[in-house]
Amino acid sequence: MTSETVMEIGEDALIGRVTDGLWTGDGVVIGPGDDCAVVKASGSDWWNLLKTDAVVEGVHFLQETDSEKVGWKAMARVVSDIGAMGGAPLFALVTLMVPKTCEVAYVEGLYAGLKRCAERFGVSVVGGETTSGPVVMISVALTGRVRPRFCVRRDGAKAGDAIYVTGRLGGSIRGHHLTFEPRAEQGRWLAENFKPHAMMDLSDGLAKDLPRMGRVSGGLGCVLDEERLPVNEGCSVDEALNDGEDYELLLAVSPRRQMRLEEAWRERFPELELTCIGKFFKGTDKMPLEKSSGGWDHFSS
């Protein structure tokens, strides 16, 4: 009998299997499954946020990609996750794997991008590890913090909530995935001023991440207004739904707060769009993207 492969079951199912039954101590507030893990900080009014991510040559970037952009991306991805929980990033550890024949100038470029992003978002790089391997890989482990009352999970959406996204979607393959600006400041502002019922960053594409939010929020469905999707210039609706690596915020907000949110957003972030694209309802029969094959899955064909 042939054993099933990770490609056959997909990323979400694989994560569910390997994390099922993991032991967690009393201080764990949120374990696997959200943008970050959340743990209590002993003797502190803050919760700690923990996140790790990796970018791999041939998967997340090409060999000929400007190494400074690769470094920026490696740090920006984890900063984005901290922001999606309503937190502030603090300390990072960086693990670097490169072939033995890799030019020193390339590595210096990687770290120039890492440092530029770290300085931009107040991250202290406090250590790491280097090793050799067949391709370039950078893994960044990042800690952050958030006050308990401002921590926003991805599983709190409610029936009737309005669905919003920041910025515009689509076109990551044209270079956006290397130069995007993490919405860390916007995530904290949203958490502290409007406390969305749910929030996450769009790393795998709206077609994959929106059903995820509905599924973990008690099995909600949604109505999506494709005509209101904020699509990047030159992109199709299909690309906006499926390209992935947008790194915008996806959030669920009480309809009673919509008008005040939109007014306050325009005043605070006049250069960045915030668009209502739909609404959550009870029942997954109203999840139009659930059966879509789009979005990013690390183990898909």
Tell me the major beta sheet: 6 strands, mixed
Could you tell me the CATH topology label of the largest domain.
Answer: Phosphoribosyl-aminoimidazole Synthetase, Chain A, domain 2
Helix content: 25-40%
Proportion of residues in extended strands: 15-25%
Order of helices and strands: HHEEEHEHEEEHHEHEHEHE
**Helical region count?**
9
N-to-C CA distance:
22 Å
**What overall geometry do the principal axes of the alpha carbons give?**
globular
Structure description:
With 301 residues, the protein is of the alpha+beta class. It has two domains: 22-149, 60s Ribosomal Protein L30, Chain: A, CATH 3.30.1330.10; 152-286, PurM-like C-terminal domain (Phosphoribosyl-aminoimidazole Synthetase, Chain A, domain 2, Alpha-Beta Complex). 30% of the residues lie in helices and 25% in strands. It is built from nine helices and eleven strands. It has helices at residues 6-9, 11-19, 67-84, 104-120, 176-179, 184-193, 206-216, 237-242, 258-268; strands spanning 28-30, 37-40, 47-56, 88-98, 124-132, 137-146, 162-166, 198-201, 220-224, 249-253, 274-282. It has a six-stranded mixed β-sheet with strand order 1-2-3-6-4-5. A five-stranded antiparallel β-sheet has the order 8-10-7-11-9, with helices on both faces. A hairpin with a 6-residue loop joins strand 1 (28-30) and strand 2 (37-40). Helix 3 (67-84) packs parallel to helix 4 and helix 3 packs parallel to helix 6 (184-193). The radius of gyration is 19 Å and the shape is globular. It starts with 5 loop residues before the first helix and ends in a 19-residue tail after the last strand. Residues 290-301 have low confidence and may be disordered.
